[in-house]
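Following up on my earlier thread - several people asked me to post the actual chain instead of describing it. Fair enough. Here it is, all 368 residues.
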Amino acid sequence: MKTKINANIGSSTKMENLPLEIEKAKTAVKYGADAVMDLSTGSNLKEFREKIMDEINIPIGTVPIYEAGVATQKRGEPITSMSEEDIFKAIENQAKEGVDFMTLHCGINKDLVEKLTHAKRTMGIVSRGGTFLASWILHNGIENPLYENYDYILEIANEYDITLSLGDGLRPGCLQDATDISQIQELVNLGTLVKKSTRCISTKYGRRSRTCSNEPNSIKYANTKKTLCYGAPFYVLGPIVTDLAPGYDHITSAIGGAIAAQSGANFLCYVTPAEHLSIPNLEDVKEGVIASKIAAQAADVAKGLNSALEKEKDMAIARKTFNWDKQFELAFDREKCEKYRESCPVEEEDMCSMCGEYCAIRIAKDDF
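Reply from S.P.:
Thanks for posting it. Predicted structure:
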């Protein structure tokens, strides 16, 4: 199967614009996203989710712990005051609404949190959902209810036909924290939970997942991580291969995503140019989706997937024959290609303004 991609959208406490988020979802679909996650944390997150689900027809994912945290803060209480009822109510309500898949941070347990307090991580915990639960465990001194009551989660998933994305809340936030004991131990916990599952489960590696000292090489361990999780489809967010390119993280993540997918990852979550800086706009969503599409195609070609190779061959033939319409049809961004072509018009169809009459293909078209 070809590598699939996901696009994240959603409001924040600093920016709630429903029409914009709907347009982001539609933009993601237009440029080829296979799924969309609504990560809204604004006060109207329920309305946002329902409206977005009405507008698009590809799978929708959520992170229910966000809704539980927002509901708790609305009561004027800190997130660490969430009750188990708040958490499971959010999961069940979203399941009833028709959400297709949920990221649940089930692998963080009390033992792991206690060990993490003594770990010497550079950036600590960077997963929002992971932080919610780890802080909750630490402040309340009790077990993660998602870990302790996993059988109940499976019952909900079975009843409402929900796919579970087992999120790694202890994913690294920088290169120095990559593949440390905490991350690997959580992955082992997730593998144990996958084995208990009777539904299709997808494990999640992390948007800000990094590598060890020689960056991209460590990403190649995706198949090893899948082995720890008993072959469940592997979902990576990014992963970003360097932290030195803010504003270009759609590129750094595409590099990591291509390597990860070639090495066994099945599902790539996009990263936009706005990552770490601001909430993405429409153009950011478009660029993030296309960058991930490039990564997925590159990986599928490297794996020898026939459908991917056929598209590459079709593009080569279209270029050889100067079939501009076919080239535009095959391109990930047709509009951009057409804009460049029209920006420097030439009278002859069998050339572009780059090489003009000295086009190599044109000169030798009857010879080779």
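Residues 4-303 form a domain with the TIM Barrel fold (CATH 3.20.20.540). That should answer part of your original question.
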